[in-house]
Design goal:
The protein is an alpha+beta fold and 401 residues long. It is 34% helix and 24% strand. The chain has helices at residues 3-15, 17-28, 38-51, 111-130, 153-160, 209-224, 271-285, 322-335, 350-356, 381-399; strands at residues 55-58, 64-68, 73-80, 101-102, 105-107, 137-144, 168-171, 179-183, 185-194, 229-230, 234-235, 237-246, 256-265, 290-293, 295-296, 308-309, 311-312, 315-316, 341-344, 361-363, 378-380.
């Protein structure tokens, strides 16, 4: 793609700012917790049809999929459109479901994580058609569900059911307009300890399971200090994020206690190695415990239950991979500057797309990763426009190889 075409795309993206941001504000205003996304999915479906997508459909899990073009090469752009909840509205300076615009930003729950990517994608499709950028390509824009509850479940369904078969997927999670080529994986691990219950007035007759997990908790804190590291993705981590117990009453000694480990996986970590590390930590602490991983089995808004192990593998695209080089050119052509290549700290649908299914994946999105899940969440309007231009330019650069 010549630099002049890149400038043309960037200029057209700027002209489309008004409808693009109006659409973003509309979808921010629709609450969409995981499993409750129907309203925002229907709104995205409406916008895709309005701006001229060639095909729009909703799959069995509730993902919305919009197609433009009919070439033999298939690529996809993805935005998950579910959000985390607003735990304390008093921490917000504005209504989190109004899509407030102020100082060049759109504020609201899901603005940066990651409905801004969805808005940029839809209007990138407009430019791809208007400017004849689709030669040889079929492009799918996917608004996916349940990512906040189960990273990649949406794409596990898409790829397992062979809904589409892309050669590349671009995640539009926030990257601060950097190109991301990987992320640490993660998994969810439970540690369960058994005790023996008795009346709380006679604790010496029982075996308190909560007391028994105390050294186990310290062992996990120590384990975190000794996990693998990688020069690019960084260190693996583990932290206890929940503790619970089973007890006949509040006047009884608990007969079972357990805790939940949020384990982040770097290069070289696997499901088996992570579980083995926890098991070894328990042995060293002298704690007899059951160590196991979890399965996600919640209903989608469509009613479908599509079980998935809560193991989300690490993934990295090699620096010399052709699609990464094409993405770098697309950024340079539309922005006039060289891109920064980096990785995410948090998790994305890439854990399934590339980590589990081996489909090449890279990331580019508006706004900052660190703003996700915060009160007063926002995304810069300029970032949304720039990201949309990048998406529109990418097929032309991929065509070059």
């Amino acid at each position: 793609m010549s630099n002049s075409i890149g400038k043309t795309i960037a200029a057209r993206a700027a002209e489309l700012q008004e409808p693009m941001i109006a659409f973003l504000r509309d979808i921010v205003a629709i609450p969409s917790l995981s499993g409750q996304e129907e309203g925002v999915i229907r709104r995205i479906e409406e916008e895709m049809k309005k701006v001229g997508f060639d095909e729009v459909r909703i799959d069995a899990l509730g993902n919305v999929l919009g197609r433009i073009g009919d070439g033999p090469r298939i690529i996809a752009f993805d935005a998950h459109i579910d959000t985390v909840d607003v735990s304390d509205p008093t921490q917000w300076d504005c209504d989190p479901f109004k899509g407030k615009v102020e100082d060049g930003n759109v504020f609201g729950r899901g603005s940066v994580d990651q409905k801004a990517g969805m808005a940029g994608m839809v209007y990138a499709a407009v430019m791809m058609k208007e400017l004849n950028l689709l030669d040889g390509f079929t492009v799918w824009m996917t608004g996916t569900v349940m990512e906040e509850d189960c990273d990649g479940l949406c794409w596990h369904h898409i790829l397992s059911e062979k809904t589409i078969n892309p050669e590349l997927v671009v995640s539009t999670e926030p990257t601060g307009l950097k190109i991301h080529r990987g992320q640490r994986g993660r998994m969810e691990i439970r540690v369960r300890v058994k005790g023996r219950s008795c009346h709380g007035s006679m604790p010496h007759l029982g075996d308190n399971a909560i007391y028994k997990i105390a050294p186990a908790i310290q062992a996990i804190e120590k384990l975190n200090d000794n996990l693998k590291t990688d020069d690019f993705l960084g260190k693996g981590t583990c932290t206890i994020s929940w503790i619970g117990c089973q007890t006949p009453s509040l006047c009884a000694v608990p007969d079972e206690a357990e805790f939940h480990i949020d384990r982040r996986l770097t290069v070289g970590d696997s499901r088996e190695s992570a579980v083995a590390e926890v098991e070894e930590a328990m042995r060293e602490a002298g704690v007899e415990a059951e160590v196991f991983t979890l399965v996600y089995e919640e209903k989608a808004w469509t009613g479908l239950v599509y079980p998935m192990d809560k193991y989300y593998p690490t993934w990295v695209m090699e620096e010399d991979y052709p699609a990464l080089q094409a993405a770098s050119r697309a950024f340079a052509d539309t922005s006039g500057s060289d891109p920064e290549i980096s990785c995410w700290t948090f998790s994305t649908n890439g854990v399934t797309i590339m980590g589990l299914h081996g489909v090449p994946c890279l990331g580019f999105g508006p706004g900052l990763e660190k703003i996700a899940h915060t009160a007063n969440e926002f995304v810069p309007i300029a970032d949304v426009v720039a990201a949309s231009a990048f998406y529109a330019a990418l097929p032309g650069e991929l065509r070059k190889g």
